[in-house]
Every structure is written in C-alpha cells, then in structure tokens.
What does this fold into?
Amino acid sequence: MDCIPCMMRQIVDAARRAKADEGAQRRILTGACELLARGLNNEEMTVAVCRDLNRLVVEETSVEEPYRDIKERHIKEALTLYPRLKERVVNSPDRLLAALKTAAAGNVLDIFIDVEARVQDVEGILKQEFALCCLEEFRQQLSQSTDILILADNAGETVFDRILIEELGKKNVVYAVKDSPIANDATLRDARESGLEEVATLISAGCSTAGTLLADCSEEFRRLFSEADIVLSKGMGNYEALSESSRPIFFLLKAKCQPVADDIGVPLGKLVFARQEDIGK
Amino acid sequence: MDCIPCMMRQIVDAARRAKADEGAQRRILTGACELLARGLNNEEMTVAVCRDLNRLVVEETSVEEPYRDIKERHIKEALTLYPRLKERVVNSPDRLLAALKTAAAGNVLDIFIDVEARVQDVEGILKQEFALCCLEEFRQQLSQSTDILILADNAGETVFDRILIEELGKKNVVYAVKDSPIANDATLRDARESGLEEVATLISAGCSTAGTLLADCSEEFRRLFSEADIVLSKGMGNYEALSESSRPIFFLLKAKCQPVADDIGVPLGKLVFARQEDIGK
It folds into this structure.
C-alpha cells in the first residue's frame, strides 16, 4: 500500500524538477492518478507504473531528464570518494566481501529515499553487516565463471560498482544500464562519466524502467541475461522486477523502504546480498 | 502539488488502521486515485476530497472511526498536561497571548504531521513567537464582543482550547466540532471527554470534513457563523476551507505543511494568529 503515496511523491518531485507549469502540473497529477488506478486494477508491477508516470512528465514538460543535475552531482561526489573507498577495500581482510558491501552501500546515493543521507553516511553504512549474505555461494560460483552480467541501479552508485568489478578478478563483465533516463537510474552516459568503461563492457538493457523489466528489454540483453554465468542485480527496482525470475540471480541492495524490507524479510535500512532462495525465510 | 501524495499517505494510513483486508485495500486505493483525479479535474477543495477519501475507508471496512484509540490517547495526554499549561498561562505577563499560543501549540497533537512530535514538544513550541500575530486587534474586538464561535480542530488539541476559552472572560462561547469522525478531528464525544462542556456550548457544525466546509454545514451552524461577534478558526483544515470567506475570521494554527505555510507566507512550523487581511503579505 505504501508504494502508491511514494510513487505519487516521486512524480510530484519529478514534475517540480522539470519545472512543469500549473496547467502541466494538473495534467500530470490527474494522469498519474488515472495511471495508478489502472495499475492497481491490472496488478501491474510498480516499476512499470513508474515508467508510465515518468513518461507523463516528459510528455508534459519536454524535459527528458529532470534528474540530470542531481545525477551529475552524485557521480562527482562518488568519484571524490573513490580513492578512500578503494583503499578501504584493498586493506580489508576479505576484499570481495568489502567490495560487495561498498557496492551495496552505494545505494545510499538515491534521490527518493534517505534524502538526508549524504556520502558522509557511506562510512557508517560500511560498518553494517549484511542482513542476508550469500558470500560463500557467490565466491564459489565466481571461481567457476567467466561471464558476469551486472544490472546497474542509480547514477553515482555506479562508481561504487567499479570497486566491486575490480575485485571480481579477470572476468568478462557486462554492465547493463537503462536505455533512456528514468528517475536517477544510470544510463550509458552516467556509466561512462563514472569511469565504468575501463572495467566493463557497457550496454543498454533496452528498457527505461526503474527496474529491469525483461518484457521491455532488448533481444540482446535478454540473451545475455539468460546465458551469463552469474547475474548480479543492484538495487530495489531490479529486485522488484526480477525477484520472481526463474534464473538464479544474486541481489545486492540496501533495503531502503518498508515494503521491500518486508518482502525480503529484513529490517528497514539493512544491506542485503541474497539469492531468490534466501529471501523471505 | 504536495497535497496529493500527502492525501494518499493519509488514506493508506486510515485503511491500515481500519484493518482493511487485501481486497479492500485495493478497492480503497483504486477509488482514492479516481477521487483524486476527479478532484483535480474539478478543482475541488482539499478538505472535500479528504472527506470522500475517508468515506471510502468507512464503506470498505465498516470501521467508522479508525483513529478512535489515537484520539483517546491524545486527549488523555493533553489532560495530563493541562495543570502545567494552565499554571504557565496564569503566571504569564500577558495571559491572553499565552493562552492563544497554548491553543495554537495544541495543534502539535496531530496524527499526520509531526508524527514524532509528542506532548513533550509542547514546551518548546510555547517558546516560539507567532510568525503573524493580530493580538491587539483581537483584544480590542474581544472587549466589545459577547458571542464567540470557535471552530475546533483535532481531538487532544481540544484540551488546549479549554485554556484559551477560560482566558476569554465572561463570553458566550460556542465550540463547534465535526459531525461524524473524520481523521483525528474532534467530535462532540471528544470535546466532552476533553472537559469542554464546562466552559462552552458544544455543537456539531454539521459537516464531517477535515475543514469546516460551509456548504456541508447545518443551517444552525451557518447562522451562528454569520452572526457571531468573533469567529476563531483553529488549524490548517479550517484555514483551507475558510481563508477565502467574506466574513472576518481569526485564524489560529501551526503551519505544519509547506503548501499552507507558503499560502500564509510564513516559514514551515511557525505559529500563526492572523486575519484574512494579514495573510500572504
């Protein structure tokens, strides 16, 4: 139930950032209410409804990327943090664990949740333990794998993901981002600005939804998704879109809202590294 | 714009408190989206839309008063505070000002805003100055008036209003509450439990809207409203419903949300005691 007011809050924020005038605001909000009603009636996925809500803002304001400036700021902040975070991982007794935790903590760079949480909080988050942790399963599978597909989440967080990719060893890593801007999700431009091109093959998943909605994705992505030795999914949007998937996935995220925390079965705010079978137990 | 997600949040909270089952939740949320879209299209008043949203919850759950327990707790807490607040007013250099401030501070007892703010915060609020204050106009009109109509806001706050009524001198005070439960607004039962019967004539305004919507009110109330020497309106809901009224009104409230603070022209969180002509300047 809490998703509905939250989505409404997000669309109001997007409309304001896109500088919608009064008429556009009214049309966006009215359209948003109608889309939410339709979504509820048809039991549509949250990420699909969010996609349509964001399209409304683009249609009414012609602003393609209301969060451009925030994404750039987050990437810049994250790049400033990079050397310190990298050093921390390199000096950790378990570098892979430390890198996974860093990538999960990157999830704090979010426009909607934890608005007060800034990069200063990352250090605090890194001291947390994973509420669910499938590190040994991951380590074992990693040792037998070549092709790793990572599903990106937010811009800025991308920089944190670089640190993880650098700890995966010599693998073919494909880093999949959103096709066109949706909220603060990373696009190819954001991934490049984050320096990800140096450590992974960057691709667009083909979709422009807050979570990787397979039905919206490109043929190429779907093939990669089914053939990769390991799929590592970042963030809540991807979790929402893929948690029922039949292919094994490693989900790495911070449980930033109560509905997702409840669904996973962890307290709000915890870091999670888990497979489908570890969840909700 | 911010009113829409806020109303949605309130209706989710009401549905949860009324223990709506999954089917009822879906119907309430879908209906809420449709009502909000209609309200936006028809430029309906926020308080009218809230009334219809709350009706949805009652219809779907048969729970007439989802906030019964919270209202009772707030009244109980306020009654515990009463002696200390009363003493504070009695020992003030300007008792009327202190009583007005106490009545405005009572607005902190709200389920929706300041959820963390408990009665302990009242002392802090009492140290605030009014951001807008028409005390001298009020004092002067009071000296020439007999019939005072007070429009109540939330249950609990009612106890704080008693302190104000006791400082008005020997007047005919009519204290108007909501007809049937709407959110945590005071009803006759709440006013009686707050001890208001001892200091004022209690009436139902006839409406069941979060603000006193004249079109929904009883004939008797509308007569009182137009004939009273002074109308004192408590809280944001009444301000929203009546700020465009042609009859002079004294508005006493805490500006608890940004849209109302912006409309009045004061910073968020400030106490306000103002007439229509003082506002938005």
Notes: The two ends of chain A are 22 Å apart (CA to CA). The mean pLDDT of chain A is 93. The longest helix of chain A spans residues 68-90. The domain at 68-278 of chain A is CATH 3.40.50.10880 (Rossmann fold).
